[in-house]
Fold this protein.
Amino acid sequence: MTRVIARGRFCAGVALVLATGCSSGGATGPSGGKPINAVAPGSAITTCTPPVAPVDVSHPTTVVGTGTAGSCTEAAFASALAAGGTITFDCGSSPVSIPMTAQHLVTHNTVIDGGGLVTLTGGDAHGILAIRTYYNLTDPSLTVQNITLTHGHTTDVVNTTGLDSGGAAIFRLGGTLTVINSTLSDNHGPSSGQDVAGGAIYSIGAGPTTVVGSLFSGNSASNGGAIGNLGNDFTLVNSRLVGNRASGTGGNPGNGGNGGGISIDGQGTTITLCGDQLQSDTGNAFGGGLFRVAYLGTEPTIIDRTSIDSNVILSTTQGLAGGLYLQDTKITMTATTIANNAANGAGGFFVGPGATADLTNTTIAGNTAYTSLGGGLWLDASVHGTLLNVTIADNHAPGSVAFDGGIAFGSTGVTLQNSIVADNTVGNGYNPINCGATLTDGGGNIQYPVARAGGGSDSPNSLCAAGVLIASPQLGPLGNSGGPTETLVPASGSPAIGLGRNCPSTDQRGTSRADHCTAGAVEAP
């Protein structure tokens, strides 16, 4: 079984990711699965406290329009943008769409507020907005809020920075970008290319990128179907990415396909997701929902109260991580569900070389590795960290030579504590069902089953932790049991109840835990 690892390096401001090896064969994954606590497009998610508030636009610098739809023209908008400052619109009381016949440059600190009624469209022929300054500059700043940016389009022409064009709605080289309460849909960057990213947004350079309360749908580019981010801190809060696609192939080097929803690269950056939904995004190489390569092993990736659901790597010849691909980064994940994702290997979550992974109150369920290993979770042998009150259940590695349906690889560098690894399935009846390595035993763990379909047992040599309790945890189906993410709740008579020690104060739903808590992500009733 060949392992596919994406390696990264930072070269003259350009991300280069090196994929070595690939799995053989495979079936295409589904285009999606059961929706997660679905919200209507444009509906607000209020799970997390936003890091920024909408800008007060009660005293605008320029108002585009004089009260009618016809007065809101591209020329009037371009004139306002050239002046910068705060831009609002007066186009009447009905929604209005303003066609763009060219990509418009932001050269001053600017706020654009559409009032919930304005759409800027590129007509499937042009990019919409751009900052083009220098990589190390944080000015100008651009805030877009309460607006829709749609049908932006860029080509494979190399721009003046040496990077292929991306960011069909917003391209940023230098400067700072904030997006609040907005919709970015059906924007398309180049379909193929090694360093092409961001169907809707491509942010490059030192200034941070912050997205709050926004919807990204139907966007595509070679990498980062919705968002590409290179070399800056990235924050995504209370936002939804659905149906975006990384359309390239081969990874990097190659022609892309990383990060169906989001592709992130760059040294010394912090990535934060809170209260988000990454759903039904697709790629062709690594990371159907999110792809991130860091460099030092200490750069933080913080994921809290987020659902990563029904994302797929579509490649039939290679591909890992239907949900998440994270490498060389310090991962802190809490109250998050990774469910119903699919890829040839690492159906749910791939934790790559050089990473630290601390997962608490997290559910990994219903994911599928079609032909390779790790239906739920793949841990590189170099990974360190702790899986505390984690539920890894009902994941599948159905290939005829596949196994490790729950956790593939790993080592004693990872501690398993108060966790459930159960009800996972494999296609090879003679190899481990749940875990490919015995992790360090933190106590309070439960594993089931251990009897292999072809004969033999996972016990004692393939236990997930040395002192694990072998018993069915009696888990219910994945569903909404309270809190912002779906979970698996043990039945009232489950042997997981009271098994845990030194537990978090609350469970994945935010419910208080007992002193001797229930193993897994959810405190049983």
Observations:
- Confidence is low (pLDDT under 50) at residues 1-42, 158-162.
- The longest strand covers residues 356-365.
